[in-house]
TrEMBL record:
Family, per entry: Belongs to the Orn/Lys/Arg decarboxylase class-II family.
Domain of life of the native organism: Bacteria
Active site: 329
GO molecular function: ornithine decarboxylase activity
Enzyme class, first EC level, given as a word: lyase
Modified residues (N6-(pyridoxal phosphate)lysine): 51
Pfam families: Orn_Arg_deC_N
Known catalytic reactions: L-ornithine + H(+) = putrescine + CO2
EC number: 4.1.1.17
Gene that produces this protein: ldc
Protein name per the record: ornithine decarboxylase
Cofactor names: pyridoxal 5'-phosphate
Pathway annotation from the record: Amine and polyamine biosynthesis; putrescine biosynthesis via L-ornithine pathway; putrescine from L-ornithine: step 1/1
PANTHER family to which the protein is assigned, alphabetical: ARGININE/DIAMINOPIMELATE/ORNITHINE DECARBOXYLASE, ORNITHINE DECARBOXYLASE 1-RELATED
Length: 381
């Protein structure tokens, strides 16, 4: 936790404004993260994944630093433009788009679109004539703590056909993209994906199509309970893989950090609402209920995939495993039960806990009013 966040939370408590959980994001950390990515891969353009945290404060800061933006919807594209980005710095990176949204993005000046099938290509050809398209390929995401599903992407051999179709319809077949999985801790995960991308470049060249760009996606992790490699380690491994598979003809490259850009900039403060047991049997675990849960912003605890670091005012005391749950009247609102979480034995109702690494995928995953609870209160300082 930065000193700025510590001081902010202290003032909040002194003023009696700590009655609900909140997320606090330190923008100085976001600035430092962007500069690290930009310096580590100086020949690669950074397209911040807006979905990770679309707060206007974050977008304005990154736009002022020169960042580009990966957007999943036309609404996110409009947010990036409103924050100061120019259309050439915005990519419509979702492979699932309404045709009218493609047309709206095109009218805004956006010319870079993701595809993974011929049907999507045809929509873009109608709504955004002459635009640049890049084909997303499937990847197994081995090593990622939050692997991506088969929902996005196509087989590499199919990508060649998709790009060829785009070229025939008057679009510019521009490149290839992939994603190695969120929270990817293996710095070598990009190697096989870049090998597939290079093969697609060669196959397209045989058809007279000169691809220009590889979008290497996100996957750069935030530290939770486990240590993660440095951004420099990723940068070195990625550059080696590019040289290995493309030689001296390295194409234009893009990365799309989201979690890695904002995750470690945020802290959630939450309160213990209840501590209880379900029976008096020996070995029965305590249940600790917080005033935030899956529906309040901690959706990534689904399947216990992301295990946040949680700190309490009683750290250093004896701990025991507990089941950690949220406050809502929904039986799915349990964060950690299969692998109980160690918390102090002396923990009491009313204690404030701090959940680290929550700057990404929390405020926007928070429900609007489930059980009447307000969305997660957020502050960007």
């Amino acid at each position: 936790m930065t000193q700025r966040i510590h001081d902010f939370l202290l003032r909040r408590r002194e003023e009696g404004r700590d009655t609900e959980p909140c997320l606090v994001v330190d923008l100085d950390v976001v600035r430092e993260n962007y500069q690290t990515f930009a310096k580590t891969l100086p020949d690669t353009r950074v397209f911040y994944a807006v979905k990770a945290n679309p707060a206007p404060e974050v977008l304005r800061l990154l736009a002022s630093l020169g960042s580009c933006f990966d957007t999943a919807t036309v609404q996110e594209a409009e947010m990036a433009l409103a924050a100061g980005a120019t259309p050439d710095r915005v990519s419509f990176g979702n492979t699932i788009k309404k045709e009218r949204d493609i047309a709206r993005a095109y009218a805004l000046g956006i010319r870079l679109f993701a595809v993974d099938c011929k049907e999507e290509v045809e929509k873009i050809a109608r709504a955004a004539p002459g635009a640049k398209v890049f084909a997303r390929i499937l990847y197994d995401c081995a090593g990622a703590e939050w692997p991506l599903s088969r929902k996005f992407g196509c087989a590499p051999e199919m990508a060649v056909e998709v790009l060829d179709h785009a070229q025939r319809l008057g679009l510019e077949a521009y490149g290839v993209s992939f994603h190695v999985g969120s929270q990817q801790r293996n710095v070598k995960a990009w190697d096989r994906a870049l090998a597939s991308a290079a093969a697609i470049f060669r196959d397209c060249a045989e058809r007279g199509i000169s691809l220009k760009m590889v979008n290497m996606g996100g996957g750069f992790p935030t530290k939770y309970l486990k240590d993660v490699p440095t951004v420099r380690s990723y940068g070195m491994a990625i550059f080696r893989a590019l040289r290995k598979h493309f030689g001296n003809r390295i194409p234009e490259t893009i990365i799309e950090p989201g979690r890695g850009m904002v995750g470690n900039a945020g802290i959630i403060e939450t309160e213990v609402v209840l501590i209880s047991k379900k029976s008096q049997k020996e070995g029965e675990l305590r249940w600790v209920y917080l005033d935030i849960g899956k529906f309040g912003g901690l959706a990534e605890t689904m399947d216990e995939s992301i295990r946040y670091q949680i700190r309490s005012p009683r750290d250093g005391a004896d701990v025991e495993p507990v089941v950690l749950a949220g406050p809502t009247c929904d039986s799915a609102d349990v964060m950690y039960e299969k692998s109980p979480y160690p918390l102090p034995v002396s923990l009491e109702i009313g204690d404030k806990l701090l959940i680290d690494g929550t700057g990404a995928y929390t405020s926007t995953y928070s429900s609007v009013a489930f059980n009447g609870l307000p969305p997660l209160k957020t502050y960007h300082i």
